[in-house]
Amino acid sequence: MGGTRFIGIYLARLLVEAGHEVTMFTRGKAAITQQLADESDKDYAEFSGKVKHIQGDRLDFEGLKSKLSGTGFEAVYDINGREAVEVEPILEALPNIKQYIFCSSAGVYLKSDLLPHFEVDAVDPKSRHKGKLDTESLLQKKGVPWTSIRPVYIYGPLNYNPVEEWFFHRLKVGRPIPVPNSGLQVTQLGHVKDLAKAFVSVLQNPVAIGEVYNISGSKYVTFDGIARACAKAAGFATPEIVHYNPKEFDFGKKKAFPLRDQHFFTSIEKAQKDLGWAPEFGLVDGLADSYNLDFGRGTFRKAADFSTDDMILEKLGIKVAVAA
């Protein structure tokens, strides 16, 4: 379900390489497959020729059921599900499914003074990811063999969320990087290719049935540390980092910083123990992979917007040199 924007692009390749028959269910508005920057024409042609497609809208529940009924799919990877009501029709259409693998989010955890977050920690019923929690509950209630993956911040080539891209935009033009408060807030980033491997590791794995797994990088990092890691990965000079108090500004609906302003990180010990999985990318080499295969080639999802930066820098009395 989904799979044409980011996570699924890498997951589909691993599944095809493993010999599985892969079908994408999408609205058909985007290309079903796309060639990766470091992928040969031959490898891409071989991969794309093996991926099938069903066009439909998952929110058209009756249409979805008619297209999935009788197909005999044995496993579902639900990458873009947001609400439990979107999952129920899939279960009805595929009553004999052997595993439903759901992409949830570590954002479901209740904010806590005790970190890292473990899979057994309290969740936040008011989270903006409440629909993810409801889906996990539905899968459990229906008695479906299921597994849920809870990533933290995902990064890597083709990332449509401005995580590393936000930093790269500023580094490229030599601007100061505005970071809220002390910059010592600790968080966690995980590479999309490591996430894709984790998704594959739970498929047909009896240990993973009925389980939830946090998936991310093995190291935690401060906000300031991300800025410096991005610079090192992309070959830029050590950046000038400026700190500000977000309470002193009204940014309207714009986000002045791409990450939540709090400590936010998880334990990945359970996945390592149960699945034999471990992240292969360290933060700097992972960011280098993202830069070299995406932003460094001139491709990105969102154009640079420095309007909130300018508000911050003006208040702090910091002038920015603009190239002629």
TrEMBL record:
This is Uncharacterized protein.
